[in-house]
Amino acid sequence: MAKQDYYELLGISKGASEDEIKKAHRAAVKKYHPDNNAGDKAAEEKFKQINEAYGVLSDPQKKAAYDRFGHAATSGGGGGYSSGHGGFGGFEGFDFSDIISQMMGGGSRRRRGPAPGNHVEATITVDFMDSITGTTRDVELSIRDTCDTCRGSGAKDGTVPESCRACNGSGQVRQAVQTMLGYMETTSACKTCRGQGKIIKEKCGGCNGVGKKGKKRTIVVKVPKGIESGQQIRFSGQGEAGDVGAPKGDLFIRINVAAHKDFKRRGNNLYLDKNITFAQAALGAEITIETPYGEERHNITAGTQTGTSMNLRGKGVPYVNQPNRTGDLTVTLNITVPKNLTDNQKELLRQFAAEEGASAETLDSGKKGFFNKRKK
């Protein structure tokens, strides 16, 4: 006889919340409890079914499996373990181990054969100007490379590793385990050989059986023009050595660009604040502006206001992948106010203020003698 739907047993919908499931279970237990139904076999059976339903629906993992596969999720497909139909009887053509793998995030089996070497990362700091114009750096690193003594086998000279009997040299073992969906075949790394497939009885003295050892290596790093802080340069096959017969990993050099006291970078554009005097702003002048490529002379017009920007095209940062393209340099002009004036400078400024129509009250105290002179 087909089993009744768990949700129907508790009298709730499939989208019921955790609290609704608990509430429905309490009500059903009270109704069909053997103490309240003495001698009623039907009520006793119903009580068992209600508890079975609650045991599944109250567990998030079991509930998710039940919502997806129904009673097959709790009965193992009705046929138990079988090697003929993907590990489960009654579901021909389906591999439940694959389904579980997808439910749990899509795990993958351990890679067969010799493992490739690990990637290696290192960070170097370059000067701000070098990041714009490009530079070359020699970087010394210690990277695990193939042991010269055993040539990567890990075994003592004159001996060879033996094939692991526990896994027949595969590095993996298979076993049937009980899950919420019944029995299922899993594959895991062999504990005897730690997934290597080989047993080393006499270890190499040079690397203690690892097959690799740290070696100092100098890498010539060509830092391209325009590189930005945080970007990496990849050296294929320059990383850690792999197992015998497997390729090396890659080397990644991360670039850290030191900050500059004047220039600020945003993308491929540069920004610079330039101070000018009041006289230069009022009368106009030729000023010197520093760029990453050297100093340049530029004219500013008379009456220039503080905060005025000048855009110097092509004086910014080159694009790494487009060497013929360069960003701009934006220069913001700021008028500086002198703090220490000579008496002559002060007198000239008072005359300037007077000609602008400034009243005596706008000038600093102690200078009324100037206006008295003007009145006389």
Describe this structure in words.
The protein is an alpha+beta fold. It folds into four domains: 6-103, Orthogonal Bundle (Helix Hairpins), CATH 1.10.287.110; 112-156 and 204-259, Urease metallochaperone UreE, N-terminal domain (HSP40/DNAj peptide-binding domain), CATH 2.60.260.20; 264-336, HSP40/DNAj peptide-binding domain (Sandwich); 343-375, no CATH class. It is built from ten helices and 19 strands. It has helices at 6-10, 18-32, 41-57, 60-69, 72-75, 96-103, 128-133, 278-283, 343-355, 368-375; strands spanning 81-82, 87-88, 120-126, 135-146, 162-163, 172-179, 182-189, 198-199, 212-223, 232-235, 251-257, 264-266, 269-277, 285-291, 294-300, 309-312, 318-319, 322-326, 329-336. The strands form eight sheets. A four-stranded mixed sheet has the order 12-13-19-16. It is flat. It starts with 5 loop residues before the first helix and ends with a helix. Mean pLDDT is 82; it is low at 76-111 and 365-376.
How would you concisely characterize the structure shown here?
The protein has 376 residues and is of the alpha+beta class. 24% of the residues lie in helices and 30% in strands. The C terminus is likely disordered.
Keyword list:
single chain, 376 residues, alpha+beta, Helix Hairpins, HSP40/DNAj peptide-binding domain, 4 domains, four-stranded mixed beta sheet, three-stranded mixed beta sheet, 10 helices
